[in-house]
């Protein structure tokens, strides 16, 4: 499947898009990730004051735009005025080749309208306290774009993966849309209760630095995928691949594509 079971190599998830090479969560970063050969693009979602889902990691605008304040305090129209690209060039002047001025914060609908079924999406709901409001809106958008629901078939399974640190958000989605693949994120692999997680999710997503080979085997014995974050060094990519990890979140899709061969290599 698209998600990694039975695959010969790890699934590469572009963490916030190709965020090592372009400003995170912009169309430019997603496009670069697609061009670099990512299997999934990751979107972190927040909700605007007028209940639109937008792709941004922080719950404030300050780090990645020229605006400031809480995301939920602004309407989409206000947020669309902001520049989500220029900060990247200022922070990494040598690295950024194109000038990213003019990139805006994308809505979920905008991104999936743009790519349709041509790519796979890895979606994180960032505000557990806003479940079910955000989850319902997410499902509405996915259904409207025919990414889930009546007009989809077995080939569409795995096209959307939902990840969350919060079991309640995942359990809600399992109940509302059982066809979605769900990944339980965690800070520490050792603290993840695999038997429990296997009741409501399809995989685990721990911090890669807390993983060992035994954990990967154990998770697989529970029927769980292992997708870990956030893997940016070549050495770590190669090691995780040799442990049969199913997928990695990375800011550097190009490096992952180059170095990650078949499992066990
Ligand atoms: O999304 C996977 C993992 O990177 C979670 O951390 O903070 O980058 O969304 P964050
Ligand atoms: Mg994330």
UniProtKB/TrEMBL annotation:
Entries under PROSITE patterns matching the protein: GP_PDE
CDD domains (UniProt xref): GDPD_SaGlpQ_like
Alphabetized InterPro entries for the sequence: GP_PDE_dom (IPR030395), PLC-like_Pdiesterase_TIM-brl (IPR017946)
Record-annotated GP-PDE domain positions: 10-260
Keyword list, A-Z: Signal
PANTHER family on file: GLYCEROPHOSPHODIESTER PHOSPHODIESTERASE, GLYCEROPHOSPHORYL DIESTER PHOSPHODIESTERASE
Protein name: Glycerophosphodiester phosphodiesterase
Native source species: Neobacillus paridis
């Amino acid at each position: 499947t698209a998600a990694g079971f039975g695959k010969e190599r790890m699934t590469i998830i572009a963490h916030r898009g190709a965020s090592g090479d372009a400003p995170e969560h912009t169309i430019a970063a997603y496009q670069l990730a697609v061009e670099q050969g990512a299997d999934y693009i990751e979107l972190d979602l927040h909700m605007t004051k007028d209940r639109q889902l937008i792709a941004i990691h922080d719950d404030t605008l300050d780090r990645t735009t020229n605006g400031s304040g809480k995301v939920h305090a602004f309407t989409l129209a206000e947020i669309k005025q902001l520049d989500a690209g220029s900060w990247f060039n200022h922070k990494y002047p040598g690295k950024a080749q194109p000038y990213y001025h003019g990139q805006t914060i994308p809505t979920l609908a905008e991104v999936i309208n743009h790519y349709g079924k041509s790519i796979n999406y890895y979606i994180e709901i960032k505000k557990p306290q806003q479940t079910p409001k955000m989850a319902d809106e997410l499902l509405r958008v996915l259904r409207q774009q025919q990414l889930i629901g009546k007009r989809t078939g077995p080939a569409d399974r795995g096209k959307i993966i939902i990840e969350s640190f919060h079991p309640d958000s995942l359990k809600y989605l399992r109940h509302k849309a059982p066809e979605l693949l769900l990944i339980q994120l965690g800070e520490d692999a050792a603290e993840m209760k695999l038997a429990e997680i296997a009741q409501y999710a399809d995989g685990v997503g721990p911090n890669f630095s807390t993983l060992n080979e035994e954990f990967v085997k154990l998770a697989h014995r529970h029927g769980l995928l292992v997708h870990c974050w956030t893997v940016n060094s070549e050495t770590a990519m190669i090691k995780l691949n040799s442990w049969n990890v199913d997928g990695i979140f990375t800011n550097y899709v190009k490096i992952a594509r180059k170095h990650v061969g078949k499992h066990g290599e």
